[in-house]
User: Which sequence fits this backbone?
């Protein structure tokens, strides 16, 4: 093992390319999880136990709102992070 890459950045290996991830699936799974948590709190805690859990309801609502906003962001900026590389352009 050589210590040269620590002292000389030119001797380092190039960084790997970032993985292409479909964020719609990741955000969708998160929205499903927050939705299940919201339904559990709304049904079990409020109707069956007759309790009013204000903070858990607020937390799950904020989770759902943030998930919807992230899905909107992903819809608007999808081409920017998942589209064609910026360095390669077509010649005319």
Assistant:
């Amino acid at each position: 093992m050589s210590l040269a890459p620590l002292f000389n950045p030119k001797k380092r290996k190039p960084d790997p390319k970032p993985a292409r991830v479909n964020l719609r699936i990741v955000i969708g799974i998160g929205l499903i999880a927050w939705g299940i948590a919201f339904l559990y709190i709304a049904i079990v805690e409020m109707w069956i136990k007759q309790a009013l859990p204000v903070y858990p309801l607020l937390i799950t609502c904020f989770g759902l709102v943030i998930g919807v906003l992230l899905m909107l962001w992903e819809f608007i900026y999808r081409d920017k992070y998942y589209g064609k590389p910026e360095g390669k352009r077509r010649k005319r």
Remarks:
- The mean pLDDT is 83.
- The radius of gyration is 23 Å.
- The first helix runs from residue 4 to 7.
- Residues 52-82 form one domain.
